Amino acid sequence: MARIMNRWRPAAAMAWRACTATAAGALRLLRLPAEATAYAAAYAVGKWHAIAASHAMAAAASPPVLNPAAIAALAAALRKLERAPQPGPPGSAANQPLPAGLWDTEAADSPLGVPQAAMPGGGELPGHGSDSAGMAGGCWSAAEQALIGRIREETARMNRNNVTRTAAYYAVYVRRPELHWALLAHLVSRNGGWNMTDLQAEWIPRLLSASKREDVFAFLERANALIFGDAYPQLLLYEYSMKHGRPLFHLLPAFGVSRFMAPAWERFWASRESVLLTVALIVNEQHFIEDRVVRNPYFRKRVIDTLFFSMQSFLQLNAVVIPYGNSNCNSNSDGDGDANGNGEGPDGIRLAGLIIERFASISERIEFGKRLYAILFGVPSVYEGVRTFTREVRHTGSRADFAPQLFSRIRQGLPERPYNARLQGGKLKPGAERPYSPALAAAWPDRPVAPPEPGDWFKRAAEVMPYFERLPLPDTFELTNEYGFLLDKLELAAEASHRVEGLERLDDSPITPTSIVD
């Protein structure tokens, strides 16, 4: 019993210090009753406006709809896969991802992400139909091998870092707007980049040690890179199929893609039903990272089962924001916007989005992705705003991309110690300097990505078909006000951190392991 108590005492102490720091911040407001009352009133009013705005936008929405006939056809195809043998023995090219190519591959002569001809002179590939098992095991023709090599090289070239991945997704969507998932992935990847740079920005370095920030970055980077490495070859293969006028999805096993995806792509080729394919890709990519990242023992111990990660719901660090209001969209040129802006007025920031509560739950991540998709492609004002934002604002990883009036890519002087709050209600206080939010290139160097662990996650159709039953639009998704107060809470934690000894290492001790019950 003594050993057990000693084991948990450090974690309990850290949790106590975290609670003490939060209470210290709350007391700062309570010492100013008028300010605290005004703050609470502003939050309540903002919440009401968010609900009203969500309902108004929802009234004009046309959410994506899943076709029951398409779902039935997919279910039948997946049940056939259950009875079919794996397309090749363990360890074959059909059952494990192939090496992704060299990281120092030189850029191809084509523009960013544009597929080139599969053979010199534009020669066509021989057709083998759409049977994904027909050419399994690596028995490819010379032309097919050339195409496989080209797609792998292009994937490796664009998988260099979060910025290149995000740009590649967007380029695909511009070329092929029927690939809804590419735009959804572009926006989620933008958020991933913002989360990565937050680790080196104004606030989180005051809460996490350098080693722990490195662990969290490795977690985010691994998930971002693995999803891209699995999904991008699928998108390119569809583009090549369009180029050659015949489906080439029998080549999917060459890229280690789950056999779950072949029926989804074949159905899409026949019907061009974007909704079914988008949901299938959401389901596939979350399953792809489940064992490789989320359940990975290293990341469980060093990231997911830590006090900091458990506090993300409280601090709301797990929000995915969708900028749909034009806020100085041409601010990429100098990395800064209007230093005196506060986000008000017709040019102010407007954000849609959601906050995920249990990242460790695969079912919650999938439903979260489906709801983001419904918002993005179902709400006209959000979609049109996103199209303007993505067209005019190049992704750098800095939160100044979407809020140049709140963040600066350039740090103004040395980090302030102790930190003094600069925001209130998500707006910059008069005369305050904008918090630092670096570009990805200034925050983290590129690093090689190890090949994914082999294996196919798909086992039974009954385990995945419930995800195709509903595609709901959330009741509330206007997040502008909520995001402002999210920033206030994070800044408050950073301000309080210096007052309580040891708070900056609150992440060093594990907590009770989180449940992975879906």
Q: What strand line-up does the widest sheet have?
A: 1-2
Q: What's the helix count?
A: 16
Q: Give the oligomeric state of the chains in this entry, treating copies of one chain as homo and distinct chains as hetero.
A: single chain
Specify the biggest β-sheet. Answer: 2 strands, antiparallel
Distance between the termini: 32 Å
Work out the strand percent: under 5%
Estimated helix fraction: 40-55%
- Outline type: globular
Describe it for me?
- This protein has helices at 2-30, 33-59, 68-83, 142-158, 162-175, 180-198, 210-244, 261-271, 274-294, 297-304, 307-310, 312-315, 362-378, 380-392, 440-443, 480-497; strands at residues 319-325, 350-355, 423-424, 427-428.
- It is mainly alpha-helical and 518 residues long.
- A two-stranded antiparallel ribbon has the order 1-2. A two-stranded antiparallel ribbon has the order 3-4.
- Helix 2 (33-59) runs antiparallel to helix 16 and helix 6 (180-198) runs antiparallel to helix 7 (210-244).
- It is globular, with a radius of gyration of 24 Å.
- Mean pLDDT is 79; it is low at 1-18, 20-31, 88-137, 333-347, 501-506 and 511-517.
